[in-house]
Each structure stands twice: as C-alpha cells, then as structure tokens.
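Input record (one chain):
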Amino acid sequence: MILLLASVASLLAAEPIPLDMPRAQPYLVREGERRYLEDRYNVLDLWVSRTVDGRWMDDDGRVFTYSTLAIQPPSVISESSQLTRSSYTRSSGAMKADDLPSRRRAISLISPVEIADESEKMRITPNDFKKVEFWHGTNRTAIVCAFLSKKDLLWRLATWHLAEGDDFDEMREIFSDELFEKKKPLWENLSHHAWKERDVSSDKKKKIGEMERERNLLRDDARHSVAAYSSWQTTEAKEFAVLDELSGARSFITSLTNEFSQMLRSYAATVPSPLDGTNTLCVARIFASRERYLEALEADGLTNLMWSAAYWSPLRRELVAYRPLDGDGALMKTIRHEAFHQYLTYACSAIAPSPWLNEGYAQYFEEGSSGANALQLKGIHAYFSLLPKILFSDYDQFYSGTDEERRIKYQLALSIAIFIERGAVKVRFKPFENLKRDYVSALLDTKDMLKATEKAFKNKETLELFLAEWLDYWEEIGG
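The corresponding structure, as predicted from the sequence alone:
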C-alpha cells in the first residue's frame, strides 16, 4: 500500500475519498405475526459500490477514480429498481471481456463527463496490455481510459477529472505514464482491491439465514469502501463494523467494537421494538479531523448540522464522527449517542421518531449501558413551560435557535428520559409504564412522530399528569 500511495501521490498529490455506502430504502415485512425491517437499495448504487475501487482528490479539485468492470451494469435504473444486497448478488451477472455494449454502458455510468460515441485507441499499445481505449468526452475536462492487461481477465477503468486551467494533452501524458509506462504502474497496485463477489450458494450450505447473509454482504461493502487506502482500517464484530483513519488508536477501536454488543442490548431493553429483527448492520465511519468530517457532512447534504460532533445518516445507514481534540473519551461518548440514533432508526422501521425520545435517550446512554448520564443544566424545573413544546417538536423546531436555546432543548429531552427511567416508575399505579412501547407502536401505525406522541399518552389527562409528575420529580431532587 505504501507503493500505491506513492504512485497516486505522484499523479495527484491526492487524499483518499471513502466510497459512499449505497442509499437504503426501508421496507416493513410481514410474515404472519412476525414483522421485521428489510433494507433495499438502488441497484445502481449496489453496482457502483462493487465496481468503483477507489477515489482520490487533490488540493486543486482533480478527482482520480479507479474501477474494475467485472459485473454487468444495470440495464434499467429507476427509483423502483430496488433490491436487497443478497437478491442483487444472486441476480447480477459477470461482464465478459468482449462485451463492448456493456463495457461502454459501464464507462458512461462512472465517467464524470459524457463520453464520446466511439473510443480512441492508442497508436501503440503499451507492453503487457491487450487493449487500451480512451473514452473521454469532447469538452476535454476529464481523461477516461479503459484497459485490459495481458495478466488479467477483467477490464479496468481509470478516470481523471481535471482542474480548471489544466492543459489536457499535458495531463494525458502524465496520466498515461503513471498508468502504463512505469516499472510498477498504478493499476497493478490498485487491481487487487476489486470487490470480491460473495458466493451466496455457499451460505446456504452453511445454513446461514437471509438476515446474516445480508449483513455479511454489507460488511463486504463497508470493507471495500476503504480497502484501497492505507490510512483507513476496518474492525468488525457481529453487530458492528468500524471504519476509521485514526492512527495509533487500535485499542480504542477494539474496545469500541466490543462494547457495542452490550450497548445494543441496553438500547433494546430500554426502548424495545415490536419488530423481530432487521437485515441491517451498524456501521461507523470515523474521520481523523473535524475538517474531513465537515466535508462528509456537506457531501451528505446535511449543512444544517455543521455545528455537530457526529451524525447518523439514515440514507446511507452509517454513523459518521471524527476524533475530537479532547480525545477518545469524548469520541466514545459521541459514538454511544449516535449509535442509539442508529438503533432507534431500525427499531422504528426507519420512521423518524420524536426528538424528545431520540435525542433524550441518546444523551441518556452517553456514559455507558447503565444510562447514568446526568443533567448539565441546573434548575431544570424552571423550564417547565417549555416541556409541552419539546414533547411536540419536530426536528426543525428542535434544532432551531441559538446554541444556548438548543442546549436547553437537549437538556429538556434528557430530563424526560431520566424521569421516565427513574421517576415515572415510582408514580402510583404506574400510568407511564408502557409509554415507550406505546410510542414506538403508534409511530409504526401512524408514521407521524407528533401523532405518535399524542397516541402514546392516550388522552389529555394522562399528558397533564405526566407534566405534573415530571415537575414534582425535578423539584424534589433539586435538578
């Protein structure tokens, strides 16, 4: 990998761009009395995740992308073209080396520019190559090259999206020299990172269930998204996969991965779900710096969360964070917080739950599986008048305002979680005993976070009693 980075650096002086995880669409599946969550994915995303091996960007904005054309590209692409990973793997076919129409379509799907109708052949095919084709478009802003080595049975594709002001002919000469002419050309360093097709038939022989098979394929996608980058590592457990670029943090990443099983059990015991399982796997991607984290946030279109330290991406099904200056303790706290969001997404069949539950319990678990987090806002009972607004806030309302106003909202959400766990259980006749269970069930039925809150409290009297008992609790303990 050192040779790989040196070669890429000589071409681009570039930083690795972790590959996007496929966009997920949740489906609530019913089999008799059983209900479970099943993620399905856009087939183009699934194909790209198995075709593109790596992507790098330099300081001037040039982007180099390397791909292996091994799998037939989808013939039909639409929002309705969605499959589970295992269904896609069973249905996808291999691309033959002599299949020009499929190769051209694959190149057009990956190329950063519209490609020409016909390829341009090199006047002299480089040594060790059967064929080399240039498909770059007429606007001369990107170099697009497909090639077949004599040592290989698969076509490879390299694209270089150039920066404004670049001389196309000069950059193509640099590109060709790096790719074909050096003693250790770039493609040889990259080719072994191609996505390895899983043999799903062998899973049946091992009696692996469909959900486990799906998680195994997700692990493959997660691993492949960073496999070409020496600065990134992958650590895996049964329920969790961590992708990170943290140097010297193996003990922390190992403890994080091992702890997650315990955290997941605590989440499920505290906020149970009526769903019987899911085919998803929890994935965390941890950047080394806040700058890299903010770039990922912007790429996900979540610029409203630029103030955050971590976020949960429901679309990509991954938890994204960075290593803060105050160290691994703060990062562990952040991971526990965001991992609860991840769990609750699955528990609620990817229907957005109310902030009072989602943010309240995410904070509740920040210090560990016992849920021992404490309020950082003294005199919380003085904010009693805001409590009904918190219970019936959507996310735009909850996240709006100044930093101080947002901090108060977060603390009120935490105060609700603490009261439910430590105060509500002592209320006579336990009227709020099933509040969390009823909320999740109502959310699955109504698909509306505010209606679910209203339905969980059953009537106005129960809600008013909850507010009054919350106030008594916090006044009594001096919170």
